[in-house]
Design a protein that fits this description.
This protein is about 30% helix and about 30% strand. The protein is an alpha+beta fold. The chain has one domain: Beta Polymerase, domain 2, CATH 3.30.460.
Length: about 180
């Protein structure tokens, strides 16, 4: 893996990212829509962690966008919407979200303007806002995609439970350590 200055907005990758076919197909589809509509975005969650070295199974494609962009996307992707757009609250999350199912692959759009995640003790909410201009832009399969920066993904993943989160955190920390050495 060759990295150039992680502080710049474009990161050069020389490693192949192995993604299941249905994830690749859905990611290409949704990235094209986001580009065509000129919607700022970032990939987050387990898929983002995969690009930083995680190897666990990908459950869904998590994408952060601005809340004002939900209506223009909704008109295009309506046949695939299975939830929202609406506020969703559970013990871990308080987010504005829209969930799609595209050819058997879940895609979750969440508002990058304002999200809350519960701390690990589940005693208070922590506010997360994302700057969708401060992303890692990487080449991928003939195009580019916007990834949440590794330091930012660590900031929220440390508040999530479970084996897959620990695997993601370990891989992302390793990625960061490799890029600091260059």
């Amino acid at each position: 893996m060759k990295q150039k200055n992680l502080k710049t907005k474009t990161v050069t990758y020389e490693r192949l990212i192995s993604l299941p076919f249905k994830v690749r197909r859905a990611l290409k589809w949704v990235i094209k829509i986001l580009r065509d509509q000129k919607v700022p975005y970032q990939i987050s969650g387990g898929l983002c962690a995969r690009f930083y070295g995680a190897t666990r199974r990908i459950n869904d494609i998590d994408i952060d966008i601005r809340k004002i962009d939900f209506p223009c996307l909704q008109a295009i992707i309506l046949p695939y919407v299975i939830f929202g757009p609406d506020q969703y609250i559970d013990k871990k999350w308080n987010v504005f979200i829209m969930i799609l199912k595209y050819q058997d692959q879940l895609i979750e759009f969440t508002s990058g303007d304002f999200s809350e995640i519960s701390n690990t003790d589940r005693t208070k909410w922590l506010v997360f806002r994302y700057d969708l201009q401060d992303v890692n832009i990487i080449p991928w399969e003939g195009t580019t995609i916007n990834l949440m920066r590794p330091e930012k993904i660590l900031r929220y993943k440390k508040h999530l439970d479970g084996k897959k989160q620990k695997e993601d955190i370990k891989a992302i920390k390793h990625f960061i350590s490799l890029t600091r050495k260059r």
